[in-house]
Design brief:
alpha/beta, Aspartate Aminotransferase, domain 2, seven-stranded mixed beta sheet, 13 helices, 12 strands, binds 4'-deoxy-4'-aminopyridoxal-5'-phosphate, pyridoxal phosphate, NHTrfase_class1_PyrdxlP-BS, EC 2.6.1.-, transaminase activity, PyrdxlP-dep_Trfase_major
Length: 391
């Protein structure tokens, strides 16, 4: 390992965390013109008007104070109703639900609530880039295991079992997955649930893309028999409700875990922004048609991108959910970093190199198809030209 010179003004824990590999690309891309970006992981829809209006109205009515630490009770009730209706999980809004500042905060306080120094969390990768640093910031050790395209980026119980040690405290799952778009069905999840029970593991289930499951209904991990008591279920409004900038998420968990998370949340954040909570309330009350409309639009774009990538010689498994394609670039002989950098500089298409998502990510690029059809068509043309050139 290379010797790192530590700055005594900063904590060793922070200095040991690697900067995000995505940043460099966005910095590079932001200095260039005429870029088509398939880089960012957020909806291209603006939040539906009635949701914005509800938030504006809360301000007009002067609702500008702190809410309850756990979030407006009315909102928590809507969240638990919604989760029960949509995903067959039943939670008590008073003791098992917490409104957070994005799913990001939910992951952070979840890790901080359960980890002692040196406890291990198995992270199924390729994955969202925050999991590993958040485990490390909480004093834990992230143990990465990779998934591969040959398995449609699903993880097996055997793979997880091989990574379990006496220090394993929890497992991090995210299906539908960022960046692979992989989904897991009930039977596949059940095998992991059996393992969690056998080894007494806690399971983080990041289900922020649950509504964006195109081919099969999403199965919530907490809905499997006996899993609710060991699951920290994370979700939010950013993706399916097109509300990334509102910074609103939620976590559902058994009362002891939730109380610990609430303690962290109340000291570091007090509560999620009130105007965002009023918007979210409206989103849950009337947003189901909007979700469906956006989902159908993403599905259409998914079908287009997978087919078109195949036609230009960029093999891509069919992602069952989220809004990312994760094609293989192995045949090009370039690393994902080289591919993404050259594609950006030579054809002005921004994608994310797969290696930033951890184990199993190298040999792939992440392309977000949450952008206009026009942009998608143009990027397919540009990527096709690039592939011909590097042949
Ligand atoms: N989990 C996953 C898998 C994500 O992709 C993201 C956003 N990219 C988040 C959590 C964070 O979402 P939020 O905006 O709610 O913090």
């Amino acid at each position: 390992m290379t010797e790192v010179k530590l700055n005594r003004r900063l904590s060793e824990r922070v200095q040991n965390i690697k900067p995000s590999g995505i940043r460099r690309f966005f910095d590079l891309a932001s200095k260039m013109d005429n870029i088509i970006s398939l880089g960012v992981g957020e909806p291209d829809f603006v939040t539906p008007w009635n949701v914005r209006e509800a938030s504006i109205s809360s301000l007009e009515r002067g609702f500008t104070a702190y809410t309850a630490n756990a979030g407006l009770l009315e909102l928590r009730k809507e969240i638990t109703n919604y989760m029960s209706k949509r995903f067959s999980v039943d939670y008590n809004p008073e003791t098992e639900a917490l409104v957070t500042v994005g799913a990001s905060e939910a992951i952070d306080i979840g890790m901080r609530a359960i980890l002692n120094e040196g406890d291990e969390v198995i992270i199924v990768e390729p994955s969202f880039v925050s999991y590993v640093p958040l485990v490390q910031m909480a004093g834990g050790v992230a143990v990465s295991i990779g998934t591969i395209k040959e398995d449609q980026f699903k993880v097996s119980a055997d793979q997880i079992e091989a990574a379990i040690t006496p220090k394993t405290k929890a497992l991090m799952l995210c299906f539908p997955n960022n960046p692979t778009g992989a989904t897991m069905n009930g039977k596949e999840m059940q095998e992991i649930a059996d393992l969690a029970e056998r080894y007494d593991l806690l399971v983080f289930s990041d289900e922020i893309y649950a509504e964006l499951s195109y081919d099969e209904d999403h199965v919530s991990f907490a809905s499997l028999p006996n899993m609710k008591e060991r699951t920290i279920l994370i979700s939010g409004f950013s993706k399916s409700f097109a509300m990334t900038g509102w910074r609103l998420g939620f976590v559902l968990a058994p009362p002891d875990l939730l109380a610990a998370m609430l303690k962290l949340h109340q000291y570091s954040l007090m509560c999620a922004p009130s105007m965002a909570q009023y918007g979210a309330l409206e989103a849950l009350k009337s947003g189901m048609d909007d979700i469906e409309r956006m989902k159908q639009s993403y599905k259409q774009r998914r079908n287009y991108i997978v087919k078109s990538f195949g036609e230009i010689g960029l093999p891509c498994h069919t992602p069952g959910g989220a809004f990312y394609a994760f094609p293989s670039i192995e045949k090009t002989g370039l690393t994902s970093e080289e591919f993404a950098e050259r594609l950006l500089l030579e054809e002005r298409v921004a994608v994310v190199p797969g290696h930033v998502f951890g184990e199993g990510g190298e040999g792939h690029i992440r392309c977000s198809y949450a952008t206009s059809m026009d942009n998608l068509e143009q990027s397919v043309e540009r990527i096709g030209r690039f592939l011909k050139k590097i042949k």
